[in-house]
Amino acid sequence: MAWYRREDYDAILRIMTDNQNLPESFDAWFAYAEQCEKKLKRAKDILLCVPSLTPERFPSSAGRMA
Question: Residue 17: exposed, middle, or buried by beta-carbon count in 10 A (0-12, 13-18, 19+)?
Fold first, then answer.
């Protein structure tokens, strides 16, 4: 699960080709991400959060995260 920083969220939305699948605001994304995290932990699923995925690193890491 990509974990975005507030200051990078708008730039990430501009970069992503599937940005229509993400909430328009960081606050809405963060609330959703926290809900997903809790749900996965309750199900005892393995969760890997990629901390602070920045706009600068996103294009180079996108292919590895498929």
Answer: exposed
Task: Give per-residue pLDDT as tens, 14-66.
Answer: 888 888 999 999 999 999 999 988 888 888 777 666 666 677 776 655 544 44
> What is the four-CA torsion angle of 45, 48, 53, 57, rounded to 10 degrees?
-130
**Contact by Cβ (8 Å): 12, 53:** yes
In 1-66, which ranges are continuous DSSP H helix?
9-15, 26-42, 58-61
Q: Return the HEC string of 10-25.
A: HHHHHHCCCHHHCCCC
Note the Cα 47 to chain centre separation in Å.
13
* Lookup: tokens for 10: 């708008």
